[in-house]
Amino acid sequence: MKTMEPIRIQFTRFSAFYSPLIATLSGGFLTREGLDGRSSVAQPGVSAIKALSAGEVDVVQSAPSQAFAFAERGEMPPALHFAQINRTDGFFLVGRQHEPAFRLSHLAGREVIVDHGGQPLHMFRYACLKGGVDNDTLSLIDAGSTDDMIAAFRAGQGDYIHLQGPAPQQLQADGIGCVVGRVGDWVGACAFSSLASTPEWLAGETAGAFMRAFRQAREWVNEAPPQEVAASELSYFPGVPVEILADTIGAYQALGCWSSQVEIIPEELAVTVEVFRQAGIVTGPVDPTHVTVSPPG
After folding, report:
1. Sheet strands side by side (includes 111-113)
2. CA distance 262 to 210
3. The domain 91-187: what is its CATH number?
4. Which residue in 104, 174, 243, 257 is deepest, having the highest Cβ count within 10 Å?
5. In whole angstroms, what is the distance from residue 212 CA to residue 297 CA?
6. Beta bridge partners of 111
7. Residue 37: exposed, middle, or buried by beta-carbon count in 10 A (0-12, 13-18, 19+)?
8. Strands, DSSP E only, in 63-129?
């Protein structure tokens, strides 16, 4: 019997938005390539790149923006971003009531509990900018971690809250709020989240096997019935009913974040660079060759 080769995967952030990577594990795609997938999630506020640099994991869920500071200095980052997980922002905006004609201008003067992680916050502000909203008119609340944000909203704080799925769908099912919009629709296609690893690992045979598994998993989560994907991933979301997870999967399929294109292309990377430029984080040129590489194999 052939021995399965271990592959260690770490998520910086965990949600149904990252289903293409979750499904490589839950859907058996790694197993078919002879790989024994082992997953972990980084501590809140800690990038999985840290574990990658320490040699503790092989592949991480990250974002191309992680490498922008290196690229501005003309340096190669310690991790190379070799494939996209999502080509849009994956945050939903939840309000206190149903708003079928919601516009970003409705946020003026209202309290919004916003995820203050770097990229989520910058994307949210950029979406408001595109929507003609002066960010100075917004009252953006930093309630802490995702769990703390949800607890604050459930306790009555804030008029709106900004979350990845399935938390928004759960709030809606519980009658606490209603999904009024998706940041991905407002920002458009961009280089949002990625797979990253070291040059040494990417040069090995395991990288090619992993990439085959990931391509298949991404295609499956994009095209399979949401209920089927949700059933596969349910053990990764303790306490979340399968119908809530399926609703979330369906919403992400409709968003188009899991298209068949796995390459991180310059046009979409340029949008993310512009988001960070508007936030004042990027001030100089960013060479794409210092941020991304082609997928292995």
Report:
1. 139-141, 111-113, 160-164, 91-95, 178-182
2. 13
3. 3.40.190.10
4. 257
5. 8
6. 139
7. buried
8. 80-86, 91-95, 111-113
What totals of helices (H) and strands (E) does the chain contain, helices first?
13, 10
pLDDT in tens, 1-42: 467 899 999 999 899 999 999 999 999 999 999 999 999 998
Instruction: Provide the β-strand partners of residue 163.
Output: 92
- Whether the link from the prior residue into 166 is cis, omega within 30° of 0, is yes
The token pair that represents 2 in the structure block: 């052939």
Tell me where in the chain the CATH 3.40.190.10 domain(s) lie: 5-88+190-290, 91-187
The dihedral built from the CA positions of residue 18, 62, 44 and 186, taken in this order, carries a sign that is negative
Q: How far is CA 219 from the centre of its chain?
A: 17
pLDDT of residue 167: 97
Q: Per the structure block, which two tokens stand in for 83?
A: 């494939």
Residue stretches of the chain with pLDDT short of 70: 1-2
pLDDT given for residue 1 in this prediction = 46
Q: Measured at the alpha carbon of residue 273, what is the angle toward residues 277 and 286, in degrees to the nearest 5?
A: 100
Take residue 126 and report the two structure tokens written for it: 């950029």
**How far is the CA of 36 from the CAs of 7, 30, 210, in angstroms?**
6, 7, 10
Burial (Cβ within 10 Å: 0-12, 13-18, ≥19) of residue 156 = exposed
E strand or H helix at 268, and its extent?
A: helix 266-278
